[in-house]
Design a protein that fits this description.
By secondary structure, the chain is an alpha+beta fold. The protein is built from two helices and seven strands. It has a domain of about 80 residues. Helix content is about 25%, strand content about 40%. The structure holds zinc ion.
Amino acid sequence: MDFLRRLFGGQRQHGPPDNGLHLYVRCSRCGALVHVRVHLYNDLAVDYDDNENVSGYWLRKEIMDSRCFRLMYADITFDRNRREIQRSIEGGEFISAEEYGRLSQEANGRKQETG
Ligand SMILES: [Zn+2]
């Protein structure tokens, strides 16, 4: 039966392209985790070169956590194909999706222990 599974289940279908950029940040003050989704076509500002061609895109995003409500400012620049070139953030730090998942699970676990 194994070869059948390989035959029919082996090909992973990719869903429709997701025009979203997912940002996972941690507040440097209280440690709260925030997940923000940025739309790569609606949310980016355009940069033009001297010939008024699109040279790239950029995003300045205000992010607020739900614990201490302090604003964090994420700055991200993209090339003309909307591929990320670099990112920086004030007031917090970027974490990976895996870290976000792990840390939020830990936070939930703590809540259950004390609650
Ligand atoms: Zn905070």
